[in-house]
Specification:
CATH class of chain A: Alpha Beta
Distance between the termini of chain A: 50 Å
Largest interface: A-B, 35 and 35 residues
Largest sheet of chain A: 9 strands, mixed
Oligomer: homotetramer
Strand order of the largest sheet of chain A: 14-15-16-13-9-12-11-10-17
Number of strands of chain A: 17
Shape of chain A: globular
Radius of gyration of chain A: 19 Å
CATH architecture of chain A: Roll
CATH superfamily of chain A: 2,3-Dihydroxybiphenyl 1,2-Dioxygenase, domain 1
Order of helices and strands of chain A: EHEEEEHEEEEHEEEEHEEEEHHH
Chain lengths: 349, 349, 349, 349
């Protein structure tokens, strides 16, 4: 299948935050992202292997929300192809001249069929790549943006839409009746650029940054303890079942969820095998069987439309992953075929 | 204060298990301890930096229980001094000739004033120290036994008893009213050889082994996932508040709790500062604020008397740490002075 | 520029070795690669994230030599395009039916313009991907083949040839007079699939495998010490200047050079910045300034033609990197502009 | 054997440096030691697990030299016993009142029988122990001073002297004819507090600091690369044969040698086995067989007498380790019994 335009990878996220100073203390002070630029209304940040102007833009706003998720495409020509594509789909479109976002060239923003504000761009100002500026590496030693994760009510529908953009599925979570609870798709040859999490949507579930080693992630936790901000740790650190990556989920000062993620695998060949996980497999989301906390299933960031107004939510109508795996009639197993006790967290209280 | 006899450090634990093959699969197959000797009734194991015959003896028994916790003393003369000391205390005593435990020389076992079966020995057969046998290191790369942790109803009383043996306190957990919930004491210059956990006792809470690096502990978790035994992970991995060590708690096939532990600090100077933690500090047991699961507070291994009969339990009469920190009227804080919500696990369900 | 056919990435190397048992002890026993298949004449091996039949084939032969370097292309159609391409170049060609190499489908081998035996294939048998078989991971925990490195007399010529195949340059080493000493090119978005090292050629310099973390590489060294085979370590471990990867060079029992390599960076965007290193920069090949040993510059594996006969060598006519950086009139600097002493190794003897 | 007074462990080193700003940039800026105090004439530094005022004092002086190596003893009473002991030996003595060194209580300095300026103290000001101040940990994450290493012509004589102070030998390097080339002795239960390196003396070979993990040491190298100071790396990183520790040797701006060291083993039991290494074993000093550079064997810091005058050197009369292992008639083996080629460095040039 040919893609209608050539998406390279995740490019950057634009998040609205209510207190820039608090956000800076978190993203620069705790995680160790580098500030490319800041003024009274925004902060532009990047990881140490990134040479584009930013992979995260924080904008001061009246409430926490997602402004846009931006994908990088292969050329300015592809930006135009994207514009045509979404016009033909009947989506609302905003053509953005170079500089509409500081550091970014000509771009298009769309309200995509799933209700998300999505940007496509190619040109971006180059800045110093700090790969070997070990004098500046610190804290999390975050290398680069890795992926986005969004909440959407109908996962198969959303997957079909993304496959239409040329993304391929690497892994998913299903039950035997055919319900799909979540799906992971990629353009760059990693497990994902975008994950689709079944839930009321459109909401942003999280954005994820990459590090080189596991100890970098442990050190972020240690630092949060030292700052007496351990309550920013929502889930993990742990090993994912899906993707096999080592992970940590944090909540920023506005509640936006940030994942730190390392060591998934190469997916770039056309015959890369799809991995399907049973929703009742208690190692699917944490290979060590540690419980997924309910907030992780239930909470997400509001999403803005192209006027900057919050999108209203469409409820998921299919079963929620949390309800089929936690408590009441929802159960998981560690060994398939074993009786399914409630999962570890349920047991523990 | 002078010690009545000179304890060097923790020596070995003798655990009764119901299925030697299952235990071997866990201690050798998962953790990577080395088998010094095995027959139909027992397995003797050690870590790769240990040159004494064993630091763990598993004995086949009708039910899971602690047979003995053994301390190494400085010489055979000290074994005799220990014998006299406990005679004078009126404790029940068993003088054990060399070989009573395979690999161990003349020793004495006592039912100590806290109700535990404790052995003191000096002589032990030497075996190859595998420090640089990297061809044999595997899995957890466990270096040595680190400490014992026992459940006892009256922590100040137990602490006084151990101080009487020449142990010194490194850290403890208290509340402002003066209740002591737990206490850590040492002879070798680490945070502890013995930890006292307030609770119905005598019970064994856990024994702990050391590794060199954090990733060795993460790898044990990964392996348990691969063996589909992630349900052996009870708590962690995480960073302790107390001791600052990186930790993991597992349950062996009989439910005995095993900790893997690394990177606490040197305590050997006489003026080593005592660290007291507030029981309401949510980072005291996990520096990252991850919840302590109730089973960790409530469950422990039975303890045998010198006839091999299970000791009956004495209930803790002071408040339990779990009840003052979890749910109902029990609360913790991340930042002292903040309102105290229920701790993370309570929140999450 | 459009590629004449679509190369995905390095696929596998076929090495002739003189003693299969000795090779197996090294590749499986020391490095921890998995044996997919073995018989009296060959061993097929792979890393734990690889699902194709092999990434390394060892064949028993009368002398150590490179049999072929194989690239994977996107489809069988691309194999045909490759065949046409090299026919048109006038290269010698061997069309290989499925199974000509066990596990590999229809393929073509060519003697490329640089004199190397190169294969292009798409189809390959799938085998279990051991990503989460942590029970099997061991030793080096090698994930996958990363790149090839070849010795060729004229680097700019070779670079032009590879750019003609659609490879892009990520880094190179030059002097101010314009001599190019080495060049790194990629198809998959890492620093390289192929590196060109200036020297008498055609010879194979090394093949490289990937791990996730630095400690996996240190552990390989520790194991070699335990096996009393530390003399297999030729250079490193260390941090590369070029690529920023953490590395180790070993020599297998036949003298083939194997690199273990981790943590280079993403190069997949069209504007990925080229990094040019000054040949006199003493941190270019080892970021820590540790000396490159002369054998690393001077030795390489013989290369066979399509009849299995050793290719004769063409001498490099431009200056050698070793002679401009070591001893006599060759010097390096740690800080540009400083006087250039002989490099550290020269100093030390 | 009873010690004449009770040494706990290495306490601190006093080094004269010629440029305090340059030294601070190294010890604080590169290694990440914490400055307890500084003024125009001195800087006091410590590791993050240390609660005494300092473990390193840098004093401005006209030339680089060792001012004193200080051991901590168990009490002020032991300081007096030490004073008596050295008086009886006829050594030159300087009784130092509290504060003679900022932060240190009553102490005695002696010119010991080996010609070194050695201090014994107990009292010291306590400062904050930064164990869990992960917000401050950085760079090398150095935990504490680990040991001293000195060059002395007659190793058996020096060993006898230190054994007389109650130190015990953990490891040594010998040849079959009985020459002792180096010896490691300890009071705290690690491999050493003091190492004796055969050579012209008295000179200081190095002082060593501890970290928790290997990657902390690799990161120091990476940072030195980023600072374009890779020429401060003299030897390593590597794995020691002796001690099994992971190590790195640096030279500070005045040429003082500093080791970063981690993961040796517990030696605290009375029957801790002595390990003797053959001087011809090429893995004794580097388990991976990487060459010891000649400067490491030959260079050391001057040592001052109690008047602050440099001590003159006494030449080693027995064979030097470097001459029996490098070039000419000196050879090493990787596998005992194999022919002994010149060691790797000799080969390489």
């Amino acid at each position: 299948m040919t893609a209608p335009f050539d998406v390279l990878r995740v490019g950057y996220a634009e998040l609205f935050v209510t207190d820039l100073a608090a956000s800076k203390a978190f993203y620069e002070g705790v995680l160790g992202l580098y500030v490319t630029y800041e003024d009274d209304s925004s902060i532009h940040l990047r990881g140490f292997e990134e040479y584009l102007y930013h992979s995260l833009v924080l904008k001061k706003g009246p409430e926490a929300a997602l402004g846009a998720l931006a994908y990088r495409v292969r050329s300015n020509e592809e930006v135009k192809l994207a514009t045509e594509y979404f016009k033909n789909l009947g989506c609302r479109i905003e053509v953005r001249k170079s500089g509409a976002t500081r550091g970014i060239g000509d771009a298009v923003r769309v309200e995509d069929p799933l209700g998300f504000p999505i940007e496509f761009f190619y040109e971006a100002d180059h800045v110093e790549r700090f790969t070997q500026r070990y004098d500046l590496h610190g804290a999390g030693a975050i290398t680069r943006l890795d992926h986005f994760n969004i909440m959407t009510p109908d996962v198969p529908l959303a997957q079909k839409y993304y496959e239409g953009l040329g993304f391929r599925v690497s892994e998913d979570i299903r039950d035997k009746e055919g319900t799909v609870f979540a799906s992971w798709l990629f353009r760059k040859p990693t497990v994902h650029d975008i994950a689709l999490t079944g839930g009321d949507g459109p909401r942003m579930h999280h954005i994820a940054f990459n590090t080189h080693e596991q100890h970098h992630i442990l050190y972020i936790c240690d630092r949060l303890g030292a700052f007496r901000q351990s309550d920013r740790i929502e889930r993990g650190p742990g090993r994912h079942g899906v993707s096999n990556a080592f992970y940590l989920y944090l909540r920023d000062p506005d509640g936006h969820r940030i994942e730190i993620y390392t060591q998934d695998y190469y997916t770039g060949d056309p015959d890369n095998p799809l991995i399907s996980w049973d929703v009742h497999d208690n190692q699917r989301r944490d290979w060590w069987g540690n419980p997924v906390v309910p907030s992780w299933y239930n909470e997400g960031s509001k999403v803005l439309d192209l006027d900057g107004k919050p999108k209203s939510l469409v409820a998921r109508t299919e079963t929620a992953e949390s309800t089929v795996t936690i408590g009441a009639d929802g159960f998981s197993y560690t060994r398939e075929g074993d009786p399914m006790p409630e999962y570890k967290l349920g047991h523990q209280v």
